[in-house]
Structures are given as structure tokens and as C-alpha cells.
TrEMBL record:
This is Glycine cleavage T-protein C-terminal barrel domain-containing protein. It comes from Mesorhabditis belari. Residues 29-111 form the Aminomethyltransferase C-terminal domain. Transmembrane segments: none annotated. SUPFAM superfamilies: Aminomethyltransferase beta-barrel domain (SSF101790). The lineage of its organism: Eukaryota, Metazoa, Ecdysozoa, Nematoda, Chromadorea. Pfam families: GCV_T_C. GO terms for cellular component: mitochondrion. Gene3D superfamilies: Probable tRNA modification gtpase trme, domain 1.
């Protein structure tokens, strides 16, 4: 890529105008991790992907995938948050209250911008967490 001065690239390339606009206005979509709270594994529906994500009661995105996180002890979803008007900043993500609609029932979720630390004694030699080792 060409030399960059400030937010303007000197060399032309496909998508240059879109990149410069994004740098000015900010990103309007962002992937986040959701940890589903108050979910009963035996009686509540499990997320599959495609569920609506609500921020402060208004739809702002959807889940793309979901699985049970055994180490974290809850359902985990990956979701896209969109805000075409103002962008999706870290501040925007962290200040909202979120819920996910799973089969018509809303569940509160915690939003992570980065994966949480796994509960291990030592990352060098975790003696209590050996998923591939047999006793």
C-alpha cells in the first residue's frame, strides 16, 4: 500500500474512498462476545445463531454463532452490533444494557470486546484443566 499521511493514502486502490470515510465517521459494525445470563440449560431454548440482540430495549444486531462454554459455565454467542448513525465505539458498547432473544424469550447478556481470561491456576502448567488428558 502507498504511504499514508494522516488519514489520506497517497496511492489509489479499490475501496480507498470507503476506507477514508470509515476513518472519518468510525466503524458502524463490530463483533462482540456475549455471555448469556440466567439461562437454564435443561428448560430454556439454546441459541443457534441469528438471534436478535437488543441494546437498551432496541434491536442493534444479531448473533452469528453460539455454543456452550464449559470453562465459563454459560452459553456464549458471537454477535454483530450495528449503529449506522454514530458508529460503534468501545464507549458505545460498554455503556449499554443488552439482551438476546432466544426463541421469543429474552435473556440478559454480558458483552465482551475481548475474550475473558479463563479460570486457570497457571497458564504455564494448568493442573486442574486438561481437556485432552485421561485420568
Amino acid at each position: 500500500m502507498g504511504k499514508r499521511i494522516g488519514i489520506v493514502y497517497m496511492k489509489d486502490f479499490i475501496g480507498k474512498a470507503a476506507l477514508e470515510e470509515q476513518r472519518e465517521r468510525g466503524v458502524n459494525k463490530r463483533f462482540v462476545q456475549l455471555l448469556v445470563d440466567r439461562h437454564d440449560l435443561d428448560t430454556d431454548p439454546w441459541p443457534q445463531g441469528g438471534e436478535t440482540l437488543f441494546r437498551d430495549g432496541k434491536p442493534v444486531g444479531y448473533t452469528t454463532s453460539a455454543a456452550y462454554g464449559f470453562t465459563l459455565g454459560c452459553q456464549i454467542c458471537i454477535a454483530v452490533i450495528e449503529n449506522k448513525n454514530f458508529g460503534v465505539t468501545t464507549d458505545y458498547v460498554q455503556k449499554g444494557t443488552y439482551e438476546v432473544d432466544i426463541a421469543g424469550k429474552r435473556f440478559p447478556v454480558r458483552v465482551n470486546l475481548h475474550s475473558p481470561n479463563l479460570p486457570m491456576i497457571s497458564s504455564d502448567h494448568p493442573t486442574h484443566y486438561r481437556p485432552t488428558q485421561q485420568d
